[in-house]
Design brief:
- By secondary structure, the chain is an all-alpha fold.
- The protein has one domain (about 40-265).
- It has helices at about 1-60, 65-75, 75-80, 85-100, 120-160, 165-205, 220, 225-265, and strands spanning about 110, 115-120.
- It starts with a helix and ends in a 7-residue tail after the last helix.
């Protein structure tokens, strides 16, 4: 009887220990999954913020809009508008001030074909009011996306420290997704920017006020499609450069983690 009691206690102890090990393994696997997806979502949020910031840097970083001036010269905008470059830049600054929310009304009276007149018509104002709302939304949300991304990636890094499937895997998955989309967008835009441009407007606007007639609308003559293609390409380059730097940093971190695991500095099964 005494021996039987000891055997029962031993068996119960083994079962208890086994259940503890299984629960620990389940908890570890769950933590790995949470870590991975936190890192993925953090990276996606971070790069949405970077994309928005790339747009703002491209369009608004130069208060004199030297990039746009070069684009106007490239596409001979002054000839199409019958305007002098100083007048075109005056209109540009008024338009950009409006888009940044610094003007209540979109208006610019200037010399066109030797006659002083209003540059913008009612369709211009309607469409640019919608564009202004989008740009202000981008400006207001970019830092929220960046902050949320940094927070989630940092939390994933702390939660995943010491695991084989650490948060670097999730970050690599997130940046891989964004790089694939960026590269695909650049290639497609280079091959058929007109279609990409149309899809972009159909996605963002629920009307056809973005379709302008060059015969009657000065704004479309000042902002030809090629100019938007150059802006998109520049945004893509800035975004890709940040993505590559981020990728190098994450890969370096992953290599360091793996070397520490292999050397036993910390256990990979924690």
């Amino acid at each position: 009887m005494k021996r039987s009691g000891l055997q029962g206690k031993a068996r119960n102890g083994i079962l208890f220990l086994g259940r503890g090990i299984l629960q620990q393994e389940k908890g570890s696997r769950m933590r790995e999954k949470i870590t991975f997806w936190m890192a993925v979502m953090g990276t996606i949020s971070f790069f949405i913020g970077i994309l928005f910031l790339s747009f703002e840097v491209t369009v608004f970083s130069d208060s004199e809009y030297g990039f746009l001036k070069k684009e106007y010269q490239k596409y001979n905008v002054q000839d199409d508008l019958e305007m002098e470059m100083p007048d075109i830049m005056f209109v540009t600054k008024e338009m950009m001030s409006y888009l940044k929310g610094e003007r209540e009304e979109l208006s610019a009276v200037t010399m066109i074909g030797g006659i002083e007149k209003e540059f913008f018509n009612e369709q211009d104002r309607f469409h640019m009011e919608e564009v202004q709302k989008l740009m202000l939304g981008v400006h207001d949300s970019q830092y929220l996306f960046l902050a949320a991304g940094v927070f989630l990636m940092a939390a994933a890094g702390l939660l995943g420290y010491g695991q084989k499937k650490n948060s670097a895997n999730g970050m690599l998955a997130g940046i891989g997704l964004f790089l694939a989309i960026t590269i695909a967008g650049i290639i497609f835009g280079a091959l058929n920017f007109e279609t990409l441009f149309r899809w972009f407007h159909l996605l963002l606007f629920d009307n056809d006020k973005w379709l302008f007639d060059p015969a009657t609308d000065y704004m479309i003559r000042m902002l030809p499609e090629g100019l938007f293609m150059d802006i998109a390409f520049r945004i893509g380059l800035i975004f890709a450069a940040v993505a590559v730097v981020f990728l190098v940093l994450v890969l370096s971190w992953k290599i360091i983690v793996r070397r520490r695991e292999d050397s036993g500095i910390y256990s990979s099964e924690k």
